[in-house]
Amino acid sequence: MKKITITGVPEHFNFPWLQVVAKQPFLAKGIHLEWIDEPKGSGAMNKSLREGTTDMAIVLTESFIKDKIEGNPALIIGYHVESPLVWGIHSSVKSEIKDISELNHGQFVISRYGSGSHLMGFLLAKREGWDLEKLDFEVVGDLEGAKEALQDETPKLFLWEKFTTKPLVDLGIFNRIGEIPTPWPCFVLVAIPEILEEHLGIIGILRDMVYQESTTLLKESDYPLLLSEKYKIKREDIELWLTQTTWAKNSRISKISLQETMDILKDLNLIEKTMEPEDLVVKPLVVLY
């Protein structure tokens, strides 16, 4: 039995994937799908892709594109979510800082270098007019590490998807002092060359199954309740999140969108060069326009 591994964060965005994997649609072809939770985020998933310990991953767009330019062999097979990700800006509840405008520097807690929590710190700093050369970063691994790191009065900042952290804000564990959306579609689906060479057609079918599942789930009246119970997020927050989220439905990707993402990363000095959009994607599976 051949195994295809798919890695993603254990968050509400990836519920359609869990549903498709649970159905095991390729057993008749001798292929078993395995889902791997990665709470450490996109930086850790990029490492898994590089090391070949996962075949596919659902990665933050900015994190993957930076890592791809720096040598990650994986390629984009499509978007997963086309709307921006809204990052909550969090601080310790013991800190006197109540709004991002009260700060004039950036001291960040991040999951790992190259992660979204790391890269978005630069975008926030640029928005706020801070010196990009003087940003400080403390690596804490994951959400649990961030909870430990934000226990004192030091005005550290932690960026994470705002609905994932909303329960922690409600419980008084984090204080949300602002928000920042990504200026690009937030999640890409990527696969390593080895699995593409062996199962290109299956990968395309699998992607399209997830697209269909995302569309089908939205039509189900109990979907918000289902997500609320699984991810321990209030139903009204899930419902709000769903109104703000646009799921990918087909293989079309804008070349302008990919180029603009690279241009922003280069402007922030997070990458030294850009690539042709065609070199980021799996050409037989993606329609660039």
CATH class of the largest domain: Alpha Beta
Structural class: alpha/beta
Tally of separate domains = 2
The rounded Rg comes to 19 Å
Order of helices and strands: EHEHEHEEEHEHEHEEHHHEHE
Please tell me the CATH architecture of the largest domain by its name. Answer: 3-Layer(aba) Sandwich
Q: Residue share in helices?
A: 25-40%
SS summary, helix count: 10
| Main sheet makeup | 5 strands, mixed
Strand order of the largest sheet: 2-1-3-10-4
Distance between the termini: 38 Å
Task: Return residue spans where pLDDT drops below 50 for at least 5 consecutive residues.
Answer: none
| Integer average pLDDT | 96
Query: What percentage of the residues does DSSP assign to strands (E)?
Result: 15-25%
Instruction: Give a count of the beta strands, DSSP E runs of length 2 or more.
Output: 12
Q: In CATH, what is the homologous superfamily of the largest domain?
A: Periplasmic binding protein-like II
CATH topology title of the largest domain: D-Maltodextrin-Binding Protein, domain 2
Gross morphology: globular
Q: Would you kindly provide a written description of the structure presented here, covering whatever features stand out?
A:
The strands form three sheets. A five-stranded mixed beta sheet has the order 2-1-3-10-4, with helices on both faces. A five-stranded mixed beta sheet has the order 7-6-8-5-9. A two-stranded parallel sheet has the order 11-12. It has two domains: 2-83 and 185-288, Periplasmic binding protein-like II (D-Maltodextrin-Binding Protein, domain 2, 3-Layer(aba) Sandwich), CATH 3.40.190.10; 86-181, Periplasmic binding protein-like II (D-Maltodextrin-Binding Protein, domain 2), CATH 3.40.190.10. With 289 residues, the protein is an alpha/beta fold. The mean pLDDT is 96. The chain has helices at 15-23, 42-51, 61-69, 116-128, 143-149, 162-170, 193-218, 223-231, 235-243, 255-267, and strands spanning 2-8, 31-37, 56-60, 75-81, 86-92, 107-110, 136-139, 157-161, 174-181, 187-191, 252-253, 287-288. The longest helix has 26 residues, at 193-218. Helix 1 (15-23) packs across helix 7 and helix 8 packs across helix 9.
